[in-house]
Amino acid sequence: MNILITGSSGFVGSYLCEYFTAMPEHSVLAQTRKNTQKLCNNIKTITFDINDDLTSLDLSSVDVIVHCAGRAHIMKEAESDPLSIYRKVNVEGTLNLAKKAAKAGVKRFIFMSSIKVNGEVSDQVPFTPHDNIINIKDPYGLSKYEAEQSLLNLAQNSMMEVVIIRPALIYGPNVKANFKSMINLAAKGIPLPVGCLDNKRSMVSIYNLSDFINICLSHPLAKNQVFLISDQDDITVKELFTKLAKVQGRNLIAVPIPRVLINFLAKLLNKSAVASRLCSVLIVDTSKNIELLGWRAPFSFDESLKLMFKK
């Protein structure tokens, strides 16, 4: 199968390029925005920007597009109108490429969306693909949802199929942002105020995500569906830091500080967004993946961590 992977220089896209290149049944074409971007293993590249005029772009040999390109979520967005910036890339750019793909005869378009479409906090009721999505406050999450709706509409009016994947927090080799910060904190061996953080979080390793995408490349029942994806192995924040410390040869010193106090101190330090993520529950229901596709996560959280640090 001929696969075009966009966003090939990013965390997810770069791993997918290596993952699918290792499979003899697949031929990978990696999209980059600059000719100077280098990918390992001599992966074939194609240079274009999804917001440009794509009239001359030849997609006639592509079977499936795995669309990872987009403007990433930034906790402290500097733009005065972040929604318009997110829409420009995540909605308009995505639809620009998808329309071109549909005209070129691409069979399937797999869109990497975000759990932020469902929200930031699930409480004790897991998010599902069937949740009624209303009043999205996060500009990034809203742009992803608008892209989803545009793609599903395109699928209804063309021969191209669409698969939408909303992953929980993704981790793996070369991860950045929040998960990287947690790794670094756990490695220091210093006391951390996580002793009372028994709130559960869903996450997904790049290994499980890649395996799921591989299923979605051709599974007939994935057609025009929305999926939530996690390791199916939810853990508390305290457990998370304990495991991150252990895999790096450290023992976690977990200080039992109530969540109310953590949030209060974070507000004083202008770190409310970080504290909110650490202290809240975000879990997802992946039963649809099992029931519809027969997919179960092949790696547990512990197994994924070992692979991640081994690499």
From TrEMBL:
Gene3D superfamilies: NAD(P)-binding Rossmann-like Domain
Source organism superkingdom: Bacteria
Pathway as given in its UniProt record: Bacterial outer membrane biogenesis; LPS O-antigen biosynthesis
A Pfam family this chain is assigned to: Epimerase
SUPFAM superfamilies: NAD(P)-binding Rossmann-fold domains
Alphabetical list of InterPro entries matching this protein: Epimerase_deHydtase, NAD(P)-bd_dom_sf
Similarity comment: Belongs to the NAD(P)-dependent epimerase/dehydratase family.
Name under which the protein is recorded: Qnr
Organism: Acinetobacter baumannii
Gene this protein is translated from: qnr
